[in-house]
Design brief:
Length: 263
């Protein structure tokens, strides 16, 4: 078994705010049933209630998945989520949304529009958490590496959509990220080469089917981005790309990270 879909039941017997209120929490987990995982669904409301009165909660496995990958587990969860009525969210269910793969693009943009400071506050909160528990950063990194290894295409697509959402919420973010990248590469000229080497290693680990899927998505994304640009923007991008390729070729000939091309 590679994962399962679960349903938590909260009897509400010992609840002080709403005694006897019965609620459910639907989710999935890519792992075993006895690895200690509780849930990441329901936010702080579920976690606080579970910590305060665990005797009120019972978990039932409603579907076990024996073949596939992380995406297979999420697809199975999504089929169950589709059975929930929208008006039951946050009332009968702890679930806040009917999306297995995190918040939808529309949800993220809506939340950021309602509270523009949420991204900054989340960043500060995460930094404080890492400062208090340094080992957590390694654990999160290991979790992401394992997730990429299980389904590299799905994780790459998720990271791409997260970037698009962040850029849409803050139009200045893209330029600030680009400036930070330029400054970092100016301080350490080998960064770009090491990133390129890591990208090639990642691509080499894909299966032929995953490579075709990645190529199709990349092609569609580039065509859509190119279509939105004016002629002058396209001209600038083409010239910038030519200069960058020449600079990278010169760096590859001077660094020990790559074997110089034969004369």
């Amino acid at each position: 078994m590679i994962g399962f879909v679960y349903l938590w039941f909260d009897s509400g017997r010992n609840s002080e705010s709403a005694p006897g209120r019965r609620r459910w929490c639907l989710g999935s987990h890519y792992g075993s049933e006895d690895d200690g995982y509780v849930t990441s669904t329901g936010g702080q409301h579920f976690k606080a209630a579970y910590r305060k009165r665990p005797q009120d909660f019972k978990r039932r496995i409603i579907q076990r998945i024996y073949e596939g990958n992380g995406r297979t587990v999420l697809n199975a969860e999504q089929r169950w989520l589709d059975l929930i009525k929208s008006e039951e969210l946050l009332y009968r269910y702890y679930n806040r949304k009917k999306s297995a793969a995190g918040l939808s693009r529309e949800d993220i943009l809506r939340i950021q529009a309602e509270d523009p400071t949420i991204t900054v506050r989340q960043g500060k909160s995460l930094s404080a958490t890492y400062a208090a528990k340094p080992e957590l950063r390694y654990q999160m990194g290991k979790y992401q590496r394992d997730a990429y290894a299980a389904d590299p295409i799905m994780m790459a697509e998720r990271m791409r959509r997260m970037s698009l959402d962040a850029y849409a919420a803050d139009p200045t973010l893209k330029e600030r990220v680009a400036k930070a990248t330029r400054d970092a590469r100016a301080a350490d000229p080998t960064i770009g080469l090491r990133v390129a080497a890591a990208s090639r290693a990642w691509y080499a680990g894909l299966t032929e089917e995953q490579k075709r899927e990645h190529a199709e998505k990349t092609s569609v994304g580039r065509k859509a981005s190119w279509a939105k640009k004016s002629f002058e923007q396209r001209k600038v991008d083409a010239e910038r790309g030519w200069i960058t390729r020449r600079a990278n070729a010169a760096k590859r000939a001077q660094t020990d990270l790559f074997t110089p091309p034969p004369d």
